[in-house]
Design a protein that fits this description.
The structure holds 2 protein chains of 2 kinds.
Chain A (H helix, E strand, L loop, with lengths): L2 E3 L4 H20 L3 E2 L5 E2 L11 E7 L2 E7 L4 H9 L5 E8 L12 E10 L3 H20 L3 E4 L2 E4 L4 E4 H9 L3 H5 L1 H10 L9 H13 L10 E7 L14 E9 L2 E8 L4 H17 L9 H10 L3 E7 H8 L11 E3 L1
Parallel strand pairs in A: 2-6, 10-11
Antiparallel strand pairs in A: 1-15, 3-5, 4-5, 6-7, 7-14, 8-9, 11-12, 12-13, 13-14
Chain B lengths: L6 E9 L7 E8 L5 E7 L10 E10 L3 E6 L5 E5 H4 L11 E7 L2 E6 L4 E8 L12 E6 L4 E5 L7 E5 L4 E5 L1
Antiparallel strand pairs in B: 1-2, 2-3, 4-5, 4-7, 5-6, 7-8, 9-10, 9-12, 10-11, 12-13
Classes of the chains: A alpha+beta, B mainly beta.
């Protein structure tokens, strides 16, 4: 790997800075407290499908394992349970084993933003307001052009996950929510299913047949109510099949992921154990599980909603860039 | 092998959607029709690979649909659809040698040379004083293809081109 400077991106970088300033201004005007959080942690939330970066603190004879945080969530939820209230953090997150691509880098800037006493539908409303403000600040209107296509922030195109599978993949909601029927349907469509889980195959069909269509109707798309298996940290819906999670998309690019936060400590504990097992099974780097996070939930996480937004990706959309690197003055390749 | 056909992997990109396992986004080209598709393979999904031999051949000529190559040893001729070869063909000179992938007596595709040297047959002289760094102008090469070259390149010069990207890489 090497360090590559791209000072010729200065103009795009300056627009990217204005986007960040507009986001922070919007959040601060709406009374969200800015949190400055550590990048290193001695324990992490186990996430079955994420690989992590491990390092070490050394002093004399002591060696303490430390991990670069893949998300600031473990810190923020502790503070929420202490009663800190509405807040946000914008900082670097780190994900190992995910090579750089036009839309992703292993080190990236993540905005996490929490509203107390509200659910994911409220957050959808807030996010749209923020997108409109960025558009106003940069272009003086509520519409932008991305790669020749016009995107208006007047409203969301709203679609449930079940509706999207029906519309783009011809999979009914009965088929979608029953793993065995779903796998049989996938096989009929020509997907390899032997040795793969419902989640693996779901993910493949989603990427293959659905994702590229999202956010292409002239408005950003909100895709909501994910099958319960895909919503480890979110509140289940009363239908028993889905959980309160949404993602939003512009021109096929996923920009953010929102939950109504799971406040049930015992359910969270169960999901921690399952995810930790999944990590062990797939040979991922071992890390201490952050049980302090569960203790914070036991203490009482207030009803709240939180969203994580990839800031470089949002920057790509608003600067009409095709590659994250176009926003950067320095990249590690 | 993908859905019963032979495809050539053109590009891959790791993709972790944050929902279930990671995927390998791939661009595949069907070696019989030239059609390309995007396909997302699951991590750990096994794929049947096709054994190919690469044989040095001479590029003979092309017609409206095909390009023809000859095995330098056996003198056997092979045809390849232009849609399978893609834009690389525009940078190849008749009579040149290159490797062709063959499977089961059938040519699948060429292995594009990393560089080709081509003569500039037409380009405007750069205006004096035009010193903007990185500025480019159009040049027509001996195969008839047009590419962008630096201003200092003159008509009649040999230049080196990357045929896959269609980009100037240097003076010959």
């Amino acid at each position: 790997m090497k360090i590559v400077t791209t000072a010729e991106n200065l103009q795009t970088y300056q627009i990217y800075l204005r986007i960040i300033q507009t986001i922070e201004k919007f959040l601060q005007e709406n009374n969200y407290l800015k949190l400055d959080l550590p990048a290193l942690s001695p324990a992490l939330i186990p996430e079955g499908y994420l690989e992590i970066f491990k390092t070490e603190f050394r002093y004399l004879d002591t060696k303490d394992a430390l991990f670069l945080t893949p998300s600031p969530e473990l810190f923020i939820k502790r503070l929420l349970s202490e009663g800190i209230g509405d807040c946000y953090s914008m900082g670097k997150s780190f994900r190992n084993s995910e090579p750089s691509s036009p839309k992703h880098q292993p080190e990236f800037t993540m905005l996490e933003w929490y509203k107390v006493g509200k659910d994911y539908k409220y957050m959808a409303h807030e996010v749209l307001k923020m997108l409109s403000e960025i558009s106003w600040e940069l272009f003086g209107k509520k519409t932008i052009t991305y790669q020749g296509k016009s995107v208006s922030f007047d409203k969301w195109e709203e679609m449930t996950v079940a509706e999207s599978f029906k519309k783009y993949a011809d999979i009914s909601s009965e088929e979608l929510f029953d793993p065995n029927t779903f796998i049989a349907k996938a096989q009929k469509k020509g997907y390899v299913t032997d040795g793969f889980t419902y989640m693996d195959i779901w993910s493949q069909i989603y990427a293959q047949e659905i994702e590229n269509n999202l956010g292409t109707s002239g408005f950003p798309t909100i895709l909501y109510d994910y099958p319960i298996q895909f919503a480890a940290l979110s509140k289940p819906n009363s239908d028993g099949k889905t959980a309160q999670r949404f993602e939003f998309y512009i021109e096929g690019t996923e920009l953010g992921n929102c939950f109504s936060e799971l406040t049930d400590a015992s359910l969270q504990k169960k999901r921690f154990v399952e995810d930790d097992c999944e990590r062990m099974k797939s040979g991922k780097i071992e890390h201490p599980v952050d049980w302090g996070f569960i203790e914070a939930l036991e203490k009482g996480l207030p009803e709240s909603t939180g969203i994580a937004i990839g800031i470089e990706r949002l920057g790509m959309i608003f600067t009409n860039s095709k590659n994250i690197e176009d926003l950067k003055l320095i990249s590690i390749k | 092998m993908h859905l019963g056909d032979i495809w050539q992997v053109q590009k891959t990109e790791f993709y972790s959607p944050g929902k279930g396992s990671a995927l390998m986004r791939s661009k595949l080209k069907n070696v019989s029709s030239g059609k390309t598709v995007d396909y997302n393979y699951k991590s750990n999904e096994s794929i049947e690979t096709v054994d190919v031999t690469s044989i040095e051949m001479q590029y003979l000529y092309k017609d409206a649909e095909n390009a023809f190559f000859m095995d330098n040893q056996s003198y056997q001729q092979y045809g390849l659809l232009l849609s399978v070869i893609g834009s690389v063909i525009e940078y190849l000179k008749e009579g040149e040698s290159m490797y062709v992938y063959v499977h089961d007596e059938k040519a699948l595709n060429i292995r594009p040379p990393v560089n080709v040297t081509l003569k500039v047959i037409q380009t405007e002289d750069a205006a004096r004083g035009d010193t903007v760094s990185g500025a480019k102008k159009e040049a027509e090469l001996e195969t008839g293809v047009k590419i962008m070259v630096p201003l200092f390149i003159k008509k009649g010069e040999d230049i080196v081109v990357n045929p896959e990207l269609g980009e100037y890489t240097g003076r010959a």
